[in-house]
Write a structure and sequence with these properties.
This protein is α/β, with parallel strands linked by helices. It is globular, with a radius of gyration of 26 Å.
């Protein structure tokens, strides 16, 4: 081991400069005014695939963004190598303010919310009418998340050849939610995809649904050039499908300016992040009746002014019932 004495005159010893000699830190960060605009298509282990003009670019998040994460659908600003060539990597330096956000938590007691999709115009809730059986409570929770996040809901009911849709549609008739009913035969001949396509044209639509309901099969029919592996298997005991979509992915809708965002199948949809007072905004006919509500009224309590408002004939009682049923999803199990 090499050792030095107290009075060494070796000139290869590096001395650490004092604090006064170091360059001071600064909070000023580059503005990246020349950054290119892009859209996040998918996220995989810290790497984000983005669309920049007509090029697919792989990128990573810049350190200055801190804990702020980009998700599928985000509009971002990128710098660095934007050629999209193999083994190149760009850097996301800015995330544009979101117009809508679909969030969920693992359960109703989990304080950590997960942003699933950003900037989507509508949420297509895909539900099978049989095999597996429909879960109205899960549909209600998805509706609450859509209303809370600023997305317009769309019901897509599959496998109508196995069971009629009337009973399920009756539950949501008073909510005036658009819907499309499809069968396996219609998926095979393309007519189902055509009807769903008409509801998605020119919009960014996030697809969500219980595993095994045919969500990815429908996405493949809508985007035939980008086929994702489908499930086709539903457990005979639990009635649950096997997850085949493991990450959200944005795909361009065929013959349209719209986009389809396929998300992993869900078995639970926690609403710990949802403020119940925001759900009322999805019922504009009931909003005026809240003027006389007590402060911080949940709209599902004895002193709520909506009861008198509806009793006076200002709104349909069925609408108030629908609102309170959705609010009650935070307190009830999803299994229904």
């Amino acid at each position: 081991m090499r050792r030095y004495g107290k009075h060494t005159d070796e000139d290869d010893i590096r001395s650490r400069p004092g604090r006064r000699n170091t360059r001071p830190r600064t909070n000023i960060r580059p503005k990246h005014e020349d950054a290119a605009e892009g859209m996040v298509l998918t996220v995989d282990r810290g790497r984000l695939t983005c669309l920049v003009e007509d090029r697919v670019v792989l990128a990573m998040k810049a350190r200055e963004l801190g804990r702020k994460a980009a998700v599928v659908g985000d509009r971002v600003a990128l710098v660095g190598d934007l050629s999209g060539k193999k083994d190149t990597l760009a850097r996301i330096v800015r995330i544009t303010e979101r117009t809508s956000v679909l969030r969920r938590t693992a359960d109703d007691d989990d304080p950590y919310e997960r942003v699933v999709v950003a900037n989507a115009d509508q949420l297509a809730i895909v539900t099978a009418l049989a095999d597996p059986e429909p879960r109205p409570r899960l549909i209600d929770r998805c509706l609450v998340a859509a209303f809370d996040g600023g997305l317009t809901p769309l019901l897509v009911l599959t496998k109508s050849d196995l069971a009629p849709p009337d009973k399920l549609l009756e539950l949501y008739g008073d909510l005036d939610i658009p819907y499309v009913v499809t069968s396996r035969e219609e998926l095979d001949d393309g007519s189902a995809a055509d009807r769903v396509h008409a509801e998605l044209d020119g919009k960014i639509t996030a697809f969500v649904g219980h595993s095994g309901v045919g969500k990815t099969t429908l996405v493949n029919a809508l985007v035939p050039t980008e086929r994702r592996r489908t499930t086709g298997v539903v457990n005979a005991v639990t009635g649950r499908g096997r997850h085949t979509t493991t990450s959200a992915l944005a795909l361009p809708l065929a013959d349209s300016t719209g986009w389809v965002i396929d998300t992993p199948g869900v078995r639970s949809f926690g609403l710990a992040h949802v403020d119940p007072s925001r759900v009322i905004n999805a019922f504009p006919d009931l909003v005026p009746g809240t003027a006389d509500c007590p402060r911080a009224c949940s709209h599902d309590e004895p002193d709520c002014a909506l009861d008198a408002w509806v009793a006076e004939g200002h709104a349909d009682p069925a609408r108030l019932y629908s609102l309170r049923r959705l609010l009650a999803t935070r307190e009830a199990k999803e299994g229904d």
